[in-house]
Amino acid sequence: MDYRVEPATIARFVRERPFGALVVVLALVLLFDLVAGLLTGDIATATVATYLWDGAVVGVIVGLAGIGLSMTYAILNFANFSHGDMITSGAFAGWVAAFLVAGVGRIDVGRLVILGGRNGINAGTLGTSVTNTPLAILVGFVVAIVLTIALALLIDRLVYRPMRDQGAIALLIASIGVALALRYLIAFVFQSGLRPVTATDQIPRVTVPIGTGGINVDAHEVTIVVVSLLLMAGVHLLLQRTKLGTAMRAMADNEDLALITGIPTERVVRATWIVGGGLTGAAGFLVVLERGTIFFQLGWILLLLIFAAVILGGIGSIYGAMAGGLVIGVTSRLSLVWIPADFGTAAAFVIMILVLLFRPTGLFRGVTTA
Amino acid sequence: MAEAAPAPGAATEGADRPLRVDGLTKRFGGITAVDGATFSVDGGSLTGLIGPNGAGKSTTFDLITGVQQPDAGAVYFGDHEITGLRTHEIARQGLVRTFQITRELPEMTVLENVMLAPHGQRGERLWQSVLPGLRGKVVEEERALRERAWETLEFFELDHLADEHAGTLSGGQRKLLEMARVLMTDPSVVLLDEPMAGVNPTLQEELMARLHELRAEGLTFLLVEHDMDVIMSHCEHVIVMHQGRVLAEGEPAEIADDERVIDAYLGG
Amino acid sequence: MSVADATDRLRDVFDGNDVRLVVGVFLGIYVTFIAVSVLLGFDLNGTVNTLRRITFLAAAYALLSLALNLQWGYAGLFNIGVAGFMAVAVYTTAILAGAPTASPPGLGLPLWAAAIGGMVAAAIVGAVAALPALRLKADYLAIVTLALGEIIRISVLSRTFASFSVAGLQLGTGGGQGISIPDNPVRGLYYLDPSNPTAGTTPFGSAAFAFFDTLTVPFFSGTGVNQTVVVGWTYALVLLVFVGLFYVLLRRIGNSPFGRVLKAIREDELAAQSLGKNTRAFKIQVFTLGCALMGLAAILWQGSQGYTSPGEYLPIQTFYVFIALIVGGAGSNTGSVIGGAVFAAFLFEGPNFVKRLVGHLFDLGTAPNTIVDAVVPIASLEIGPFLTYVIGNIEILRPVFLGVVLIYLMQRRPDGLLGHRKEIAAAVDLSKRGETDG
Prior knowledge:
Structural class of chain C: mainly alpha
Oligomer: heterotrimer
Order of helices and strands of chain A: HHHHHHHHEEEHHHHEHHH
Number of strands of chain A: 4
């Protein structure tokens, strides 16, 4: 491959894609500013490295959740606004299971099942963490996945299947209804309010020295990254190596095929909800593992970020969703270098809006989609 | 982009040939739908555009009316270029088209559909319709428009359906509605994409007679039709497209005998 | 003026049948809530206050639904950033009208100027958003408007804007604490100093209060209606007047060539363009006007509360307006009014009143603290605790109920109550051909 960039090529790029050129320029300016800040000591290397690490952890979860959203968007042809609350459902289901395994015998089951109710359970007493109670975490993780799959299939049967022939907007609105119903059912059962979930002081952590400071890395973050990458690898294998995966890719990738064949077969639809739902449940469980707390709005407030990741990556592109997740995660953290903390998520939204306006097919379209 | 200065020799050119395309090209991914199409349409004529399926006729219409932008080539309307203008700008200048798959507005009534059409309605400006003093004039215009619309519907024998939602019409009725609508805009050049499909033969004859009348008044029609009888008996000039290019053109009798045309239809 | 002229003019303002419909719905709501009040043992004041509250909410949602109907019902623009535009209008009004000595400080403009400023701000934000975004497909527009609404909310919530200075002026949004809004002028009708009722009443106020203080109505217990309720009812009536104004405006817009083009854009934008309509210009105008109207509705709504905070502008607020509109029937202005009323009275306030009714009529005891405590007794066939838990948490269940309603509507009745009606977009009556008029 010829890596030389001719001036003529640059000129043509600027002319044909003025917005793309602007983005590149802006990115270079910011990069320059960042590097300058690092060199002059204005910004500590450790700070930037922390942002990158934190961003990657968040990003990998967002990416995981994004895969499910991207798949339903491409195959079922609607923007699923209840996706965030599916994440929440998986999270609650998984952590109830984890609590039960971790605390049975020691703490009253009635309290465990509702994650301690309004007052919570002293997580230190319960001692849930990856190293302390690995079985509980594992069980919780599996339960989160299984339950979210079941929930997704149930909701599809009750809500979306009777509406298969209706337009994307009707489905979108129905999914808003599902979102409201799910979210507040969870609130009804578990009550509002933040609930501690992991014994944060019992998690092994390590400070990786960088520059004058260091990045705090704890076992949960490592677990999350490893598990997410494994899951993504699993999805990759599924899509590339199995017949079902090929069918799904075909439906997601090739709009014309979808148009010709009309509504996708129920089997592909079911597979979409299963794979997507499973990943969503996993993402929910992992998000809470990272935060250490859980509450009923958890998934909803992530929804727009997940949409941002999916749109950036190109709807229907699995790899795009993963990459988009990373970009969103890192942006929301790295933007703190330049803008106040209040606006971290707003920055990600702005990027999403710009992508939708100027390159709605996503940044990564054109790369082979999964 | 449309230029202010007319092309050389355009003054007479424009009047004689109100519509001209030159080297129109359009690619979709790997497929070249229109490949350097060049033809012109005489003023006041009823010109036919025929060709086997996939010849690029509808895409050419799209390119002419700004629904798609050509990758190369130009479109001239009268004495100036209109390549790159947007659809509504082109329609405002008097170049309109009907669609092969009708785009009647199904939730609106037939009468609403027809009253929608004319350009520059005073009431289309928000404040004219809303402010008390100004609205009176809008109402007056609407009354006159309503009358005109009824007359048009009567001619097309759609008046008994005036209050029906356009979506409930039969296929042929929808074609008529599209034509009625388009004629309400007082156009100078009309592109008709299979306007006769599903229309009963008696009405077809009446319609063609009406088109001839309108021709005499100065309208120009470019007609895509698969019904060869219509083309042969009514069009004085026929353009044949094949694989995105103009294969042949001439009088209907010439075209009917042309070997290349016969091959194209048989070979496909 | 000929008969045809007169009927066309009248048709512009309202349709006799529609007025009867709206009045009928309101009457039905009032009768229901009078019955509920009686069952709850409310006295005259309590009943009148209940009706006031319902009327106020119904009017607020009617206003918002009418504005959203213009954007979505007519032009097909799927805007789920409604809450954001509401925030822009209310916060701008609060900042413009706030006293320079208040915390956070404002510009001290008179209320009417501030309100206009709020509407203009909402319109400008709407226009700026519309310019690039309106060419997006409906679902992308939905995501963009939702994101925009959230960016607005994040901004007014942020510490950065809680207090800032521009051109030497110290201003602020109050951040998470919220910002106060000047007293609504209706109070000025009754009190010499609207911010201080004890300072004395105006002649009108004195007379009115005197009348209502001693009012008795047969069949209702208690005497008199409180001052606050009287003032509150006046405000609700003002809101109803605005509902009428909005309705007339939107009806005019709908029954006109402009409205005709909007409907065409909603159904098939390319067809409209092929007929020479500059659809982009129409969409931008509609979006901007709709946002201004939403802003005004929000100002009228929040304006009476004296205070606002970012929590009022969450996306769920937008969803509530959508539900109101869909219930009534998107595309129908009358539907928007009825939808707003039905939503406010039965869907929104309904659960509260169910709770109070059940609590009043049955002795349920204290609600269990957790759902476990509520559910476990079912095993021994005691459903009391569970019912009490449900009633006690009915406010949390309300969105569940609304979500299910939304799903049901989308599946079975996407047209809502009145959306199936043919509301003809023309400035004259199309069912009559031109007769012998002048």
